[in-house]
Design goal:
Number of domains: 3
Largest sheet: 6 strands, antiparallel, barrel
Strand order of the largest sheet: 1-3-4-7-6-5
Number of strands: 30
CATH class of the largest domain: Mainly Beta
CATH topology of the largest domain: Thrombin, subunit H
Radius of gyration: 25 Å
Shape: globular
Structural class: alpha+beta
Distance between the termini: 66 Å
């Protein structure tokens, strides 16, 4: 079907909502497009119900949710969002024929927000129906699309609209642009497919704008395919880490417009990173990477540049050509492998709070103040930590004069203090809050579970 016809279908859809009269043939063509998507995608659509462990409320808790996914291999591989499966202790999937199956996590990529699951199929189960992925680079604004999934837990739902933007920049997409659509995307649609009029998946529905209407976003199919292949073969996604953070040459959001036609601006360099060791500085203009030109004029150019650096071979030297103070400078760096995200956290039950390791990639705002250590993830109210004045986001510096250098160190200190007799359970806690040191006397004599 031609692009012109797809746009015509989108216009007809709008007319239908406005109560316009359609010629019968066009109405049937529109209905045929929806039926085609249903026939090709519904059999591979999966309703997902994860049971998750959370620590954000200051105590270990279990939550139940609902989401969507699509089958991508006949032997039971399912694609959904990482935020759907992360921290799940149990995942139950319901297939189009009503089968209820458990699923295990093959791998997660929190950066792109994609998870790969494997259905626990009984022995001898026949091959499952799968979806077809389109080339998302060919998507254009105005094309007719449909969002399939389980909004609010309502299984087998379909909504339609158009592609509002084929290449939308969002800070959440470090390595890819987004497909923006006005097709309704709601809680429960996460992980479900955004499909074209041929029933091909062009993206995985992920989020919507909280303060807008009819503004939803999907991860493009090409980005999904790359992540899924790595998760399938390795169980993880390998990316190079250089410590470079970039800024567009013409960033109209921050009112930064420089008089260059090529290159990309270095916004910051992580302390101790390969780029810092190589002498790269904030404010440098990176003209070339291994002899190939970089062009980061606009925000929309940044994900592709980030992806190029992430694909550098780990442990192999890379050469940068920089422009600094009007002079061309060469720099060589050796990328490291970007480490996985920190473990989920630890419950400090007697303190009525939870803690998490500082992760430069997951919590860059905290890592700005302290690269390693632990911070308060959640505080139970009422509780001992809350009553003593501790707050979520506080970075542990020391407890009774002993440095808290890691989550493991915090765990050992907590266990030692937990053996104190009731009436003697106090500790002097030094925390860093918004860059300032605070000393708090933590009294944990009261049992708030009573």
């Amino acid at each position: 079907m031609s692009v012109a016809l797809r746009r015509c279908l989108a216009i007809l859809a709008v007319c239908a909502l406005a109560g316009c009269a359609w010629p019968g043939a066009r109405r049937e063509e529109f209905r045929a497009a929806i039926r085609r998507a249903q026939a090709r995608v519904f059999p591979a659509l999966v309703f997902i119900r994860p049971i998750k462990q959370t620590l954000g409320t200051g105590e270990r808790a279990r939550t139940w949710g609902f989401a969507s996914g699509v089958i991508v291999s006949p032997d039971g591989l399912v694609v959904t969002n990482s935020h759907v499966a992360r921290n799940a202790t149990q995942i139950v999937c319901v297939l189009s024929d009503g089968q209820r199956l458990r699923a295990s996590i093959v791998g997660l990529d929190e950066v792109v927000d994609i998870a790969l699951l494997r259905l626990d199929l009984p022995s001898g189960h026949p091959p499952l129906p799968t979806v077809e992925f389109a080339d998302s680079d060919e998507i254009e604004e105005g094309e007719f699309v449909m969002a399939l999934g389980s909004p609010l837990g309502l299984t087998r739902s379909i909504s339609f609209g158009i592609v509002s933007s084929a290449r939308r920049y969002l800070p959440a997409g470090q390595y890819h642009l987004w497909i923006q659509t006005d097709a309704a995307i709601n809680p429960g649609n996460s992980g479900g497919p955004l499909v074209d009029d041929r029933g091909r998946v062009i993206g995985i529905n992920t989020m919507r704008a909280a303060e807008g209407e009819n503004i939803g976003f999907a991860i493009p199919a090409n980005a999904v395919r790359d992540v899924v292949e790595q998760l399938r073969t390795r169980g993880r996604v390998v990316r190079a880490y250089t410590g470079l953070r970039f800024q567009a040459i013409r960033d109209f959001l921050s009112d930064t417009v420089l008089d260059y036609e090529t290159g990309v601006l270095v916004a910051s360099v992580d302390d101790g990173s390969p780029a810092a060791v190589a002498g790269v500085r904030a404010g440098d203009l990176v003209l070339e990477l291994n002899g190939e030109e970089l062009r980061g004029l606009y925000l929309e150019d940044l994900p592709a540049i980030n992806a190029r650096f992430a694909r550098l071979p780990v442990g192999e030297r890379a050469t940068l050509t920089l422009l600094r103070g009007g002079n061309t400078v060469e720099a060589s760096l050796t990328p490291l492998e970007k480490p996985p995200s920190a473990e989920e956290g630890y419950e400090l039950a007697m303190w009525n709070c939870t803690a998490q390791a500082i992760d430069p990639f997951r919590t860059p705002g905290l890592a700005y103040f302290r690269r390693r250590g632990a911070y308060i993830l959640g505080v139970k109210r009422p509780g001992n930590a809350d009553a003593s004045g501790l707050r979520p986001g506080d970075i542990f510096l020391s407890i009774n004069g002993e440095e808290v250098a890691s989550l493991d160190a915090l765990r050992e200190t907590y266990r030692a203090l937990s053996r104190l007799d009731r009436g003697k359970r106090t500790a002097l806690v030094a925390v860093l809050r918004s860059g300032y040191v605070h000393h708090v006397v933590l009294d944990f004599n009261r049992d708030f579970s009573e």
